[in-house]
Design goal:
By secondary structure, the protein is of the alpha+beta class. 52% of the residues lie in helices and 16% in strands. Helix 3 runs parallel beside helix 7 and helix 5 runs antiparallel to helix 7.
Amino acid sequence: MLPWLGDCLSQGGDQLQRWVLPLPCSPHVTAALLHDRCLDTDRERKTLEALLRTWGAAVDAAAEHQSAGRLVEQFAQANRTLAEARDTLARAQALASLGELAAGAAHEMNNPLAIISGRSHLLAGRSQDPELKVMAEQIVQESHHLSDMITALRDVAEPAIINVRLFDLPELLHQVVRKVSPKRNGDVRVKLVIDEELPSVCLGPDHIAKAVHELLRNALEAQASRQIELRVHIDPQDDRLIIQVKDDGPGLSDHSLAHAFDPFFSDKPAGRGPGLGLAVARRLVEAHRGRLTLENAADGGAVATIWLSAWRGTQPQRGVA
């Protein structure tokens, strides 16, 4: 402490004499009392000793209080980590069962679906009856829909193989926005906001694009939403890459927030999708060892955020969420 005190005292600009006395504290605490009065009498020295003991006890109490606060914070963090680990384990077990179900369904249903689709397409081409032709075309369309749903279910249940490479993230996101724009509802506008200093990223471009596409599509389907903001920046605190999708709709209910990532859950009207988009997006983000969170914004609307820590260097080729 003495060099620091010397620097501080040298900046005072006066010629007063000062005395530095160590405070009687615990071994792990260092403190000193700085004063500018020469104590000559026994009474003054006794007063100073009492003052030193009092200040030493106060500093010790403050240090213990601070240490207790850190312990409480560490304990709370340990509890949060344990709860997240339990949730991850339970979800992994559920996904393992779901993966077996999806694999079995795909194996047993793909051939029948191919036959249904092929024969219906053939009937649609040969039929002279307009009504029967429309029915056959509907069968073809719905068989493709069912096949896509099985594929999406497998994407949720099975680990994603991530092929990473360096690429320009803004260019990729512009492509995703252009892809969803023709399908957007009414006058809904997608606004892209990107950090100007964003360097190239090392991720799986196909999977990141798919995850962002699912988040944008989900936001576009929000009721009363008129503008979607897709924002990308780097957190200066921990260097995480943050990709955020925010809509200006009414937000989500507590029930929707609790179950938004569950496969087949949807609070949208019937016929708006099987409810696998957010589950697939989270699976793809977790395969990059990232996190996907969903919350309501303070000023209204829902916010989906992708948090990616390992985006500058290499990534594992196979991610298991």
